[in-house]
Amino acid sequence: MGEILFYILASITLGTALLTILTRNPIHSAIYLVICFFSIAGHYLLLNAQFLALVHVIVYSGAIMILMLFTIMLMNLNKEDETHKSIASKIAATIAFCLVGIVLLAGLLRTKPVVESYFQSGEDFQSIKVLGKVLLNEYMVPFEFASVLLLVAMIGAVLISKKDKQKEA
Amino acid sequence: MESTIIIEKGIFIVIIFALTMVMAMYSTWAERKVAAWLQDRIGPNRAGPLGLLQPLADGLKLFSKEEFIPDTKNKFLFLAGPAISMSVALMTSAVIPWGDKLQIGGRDVILQATDIDVALLYIFGVLSIGVYGIMIGGWASNNKFSLMSAMRAGSQMISYEVAMGLAVIALVMMSGTLSLREIAAQQSGMNWNVFYQPVGFIIFLVCSFAETNRTPFDLAECEAELIGGYHTEYSSMKMGFYLFAEYASMFISSTILAVLYFGAYNYPGIEWAVENWGVNIANSIGIAVLFVKICFFIFFYMWVRWTIPRFRYDQLMNLGWKMLIPIAIANIVITGIVILLADKFL
Fold it and tell me: According to its record, what are the GO cellular component terms (chain A) (predicted)?
């Protein structure tokens, strides 16, 4: 049962991910991206990670919503936009992506799953209580760094939009 | 054992589904009656006694209308719009505790479709999907007014979701759980969260109005500017679905308000009732009490609709970003300080 579901979900994930980059219409590709993210949330649910699945839906589907709004607002949708990029930049993008993929793969292969220790202690590692404790004790510093990074990005966005207004005036 | 649980939950889900539908149906009737009452009219009174069959007549009319689909390249998305709106409006009810428990045939029946650890997050997740129905429908209509209305609805929902989430964080800090069942149980007797979190409640209430696209925040379907809004191009039952989804989500958001802030199924003396009258009777009264609270909030929605005129769009954005969010953040900080002090000195 779980295996069949996994294969269905995996084919949806891969199919919609491919369609996201192959579709010409920017709105369609945003919608395919949403479906792709939902199927990833489904994978999390299969792994019994409810918190992760829901946060994934909230954060990513909300983000895609904003992406959609911006696509509608900023792009000319009357004619199908086809951006012409030189072959060199296409090759560069592919290589860069492959390198990132290798780094991610290498990093993930070297990780040690900590699930075993939770199985032994009998703690419910899915629960948000355990997750919160781990996040704010063991990984306190990276967690705070991530929030500072988000804050910086937010201030940057505000600053950019402010500057534009001053120029117009 | 496994199959009995599945059957039990299945029956329960069907009951909730039917209930949401009936409540949404009679909300349309109630809306007309309340509007008539507030404007000193009589309201619908032809179909059945007191016009009670009016929703059925409306449904029949919508079903028998001609189905018209505009000439658009995105036919599938056009059809998907109302479907998404409707399914999302019905999905939220899965995690709501409608009552404590009943004893049927010697076993405890928990009155909740599913009790997940992160129910509150689930509600926010579903809410963030909700806007897709409107966005996709409005965009696929291939109509400038529909698109404009969908854009308004989308940016409004995103803005108010932030304030809503922040308002709930203060509540979660107090209750220490994301499970709606535990939040409901903590408010036993008159320990309702509204007395401890009045500011959070008001922010949450205002945001629910915006999230359900109700007046004074119904700029998405502002007739004077945008014809009918995002459902301008829809006809027959597809438009009915959009309208129906609005009423269904109004019912659900009233339920969430009642559960989070107004004590859910709790009423003063529930423990005494459990001791003296038995679990079944006490909790049946609890369900009835929850429905009274829900009906009050639905009435409140209508009351506001016919009292406060629509905001301007910039006023709406200012209210969301410059008023509600700072107040919600201040509320979080104050709640944190109070919890800390209470831990130290009490």
Answer: plasma membrane
Percent of chain B with pLDDT over 70: 98
Interface contact flag, B151 A73, Cβ < 8 Å: yes
The confidence band for A74, taking pLDDT boundaries of 50, 70 and 90, is low
> Cβ–Cβ of A54/B118 closer than 8 Å?
yes
CA distance B242 to chain A (A): 19
The percent of residues above 70 in pLDDT, for chain A, comes to 85
- What's the pLDDT band for B333 if we cut at 50, 70, 90? very high
Least confident of A127-141, B64-78, B97-111: B97-111
Of A50, A62, A65, the CB nearest to B118: A50
Distance from CA of B126 to the nearest CA of A (A): 8
**CB contact residues (below 8 A), chain A span 93-152, against chain B:** 126-128
Measured distance CA(B258)–CA(B250) in Å, rounded: 12
Q: What is the helix (H) or strand (E) element at residue B102, kind and residue range?
A: strand B101-104
Same domain, A35 and A61: yes
Q: What is the pLDDT of residue B158?
A: 79
Query: Looking at this predicted complex, what is its ipTM?
Result: 0.77
Averaged pLDDT for residues B194-210: 87
Torsion of CA A113, A118, A120, A123, to 10 degrees: -170
Question: Average pLDDT in the B83-101 region?
Answer: 84
Residues of chain A neighbouring B136 (CB-CB closer than 8 A): 31
Nearest CA in chain B to A37: B129
- Is the residue at A106 inside a domain? yes
Q: Which residues, 6 or more positions from A128, have their beta carbon under 8 angstroms from its beta carbon?
A: A51, B117, B118, B178
Q: Is B229 left (phi over 0), alpha (psi -120 to 50) or beta?
A: left
Average pLDDT of chain A, as a whole number? 81
Domain count, chain A: 3
Residue of B128, B136, B151 lying closest to A57 (CB–CB):
B128
Domains in chain B: boundaries: 71-345
Say if residue A112 is in the same domain as residue A161.
Answer: no
Do the domain assignments include residue A130?
A: no
Q: How far apart are CA B168 and CA B172, in angstroms?
A: 6
Contacts of B135 in chain A (CB under 8 A): 65, 68-69
pLDDT top residue among A103 and B143: A103
Q: Which residues contact A19 (CB under 8 A, 6 or more apart)?
A: A28, A29, A32
Helix B270-277, helix B279-305: angle, nearest 10: 140
Does A70 have pLDDT greater than 80?
Answer: no
In a domain, A133, yes or no: no
Give the whole-number percent of chain B exceeding pLDDT 90: 2
Distance from CA of B187 to the nearest CA of A (A): 21
Residue among B2, B120, B123, B132 with most chain A CBs within 10 A, to mutate: B132
What residue numbers bound the domain in which A169 lies?
139-169
